[in-house]
Amino acid sequence: MTSSSSSKARSVVLALLALWAVVSLVVIVVWATSPDLKGAAQCRSELQEANEKLAGAKVVYAQNKAALEDMVHAARDETARQTAEVILVLASLNATNATLQQSLQENVSTHLTSVLLSDFYQIYVRFL
Question: Which domain of life does the protein's organism represent (predicted)?
Fold first, then answer.
């Protein structure tokens, strides 16, 4: 009986050692492959840094938005000024065109009168 109980005891001890070895291997593998766990203080610190970066980005965004709105306003003002200038130039061109048209008509009339006077003079000279 003693050999049977010592055989059983040895089998139990070997089974326990095998179980301990398997559990140890599982623990080692899980520990080696698990990501580093951060403490609560480190998480709070990273959250604070992220919040500060976000606040800074919001300030930069607001500044960029204000600058762009100013640029749009300036561009609209410049467009309005240029439109007014184009209207003035167009009015000036229309006035110049009307003056040129009137001068052309006067030149045509003067030329026609000159031609007619020349023709009448030649007719008059022939009859004399």
Answer: Eukaryota
